[in-house]
Design goal:
Mean pLDDT: 97
CATH superfamily: RNA-binding S4 domain
Order of helices and strands: EEHHEEEEE
Largest sheet: 5 strands, mixed
Strand content: 35-45%
Distance between the termini: 17 Å
CATH class: Alpha Beta
Number of domains: 1
Helix content: 10-25%
């Protein structure tokens, strides 16, 4: 599990996927979220603009990241 530090919260889910390089673009991030390929805290999350806060765990493909406020 990789820890990702954010300077402010909340952050929208699709932005985290994009900025952490888990997907190639924001459009791709929105697509994989809508398709149910992303887990947030162990549950499928289909809301692209879901607000992510410190302590949340995001899983997509082989990657697992935990969000931490800097």
């Amino acid at each position: 599990m990789r820890v990702v530090e954010v300077t402010k919260e909340p952050v929208e889910l699709y932005k985290i996927l994009k900025f952490e390089g888990m997907v190639a673009s924001g459009g791709e991030a929105k697509l994989v979220i809508a398709d149910g390929e992303v887990l947030l805290n162990g549950q499928i999350e289909t809301r692209k603009r879901k607000k992510i806060i410190s302590g949340d765990i995001i899983e997509f493909g082989p990657e697992i990241i935990r969000i931490q406020l800097k």
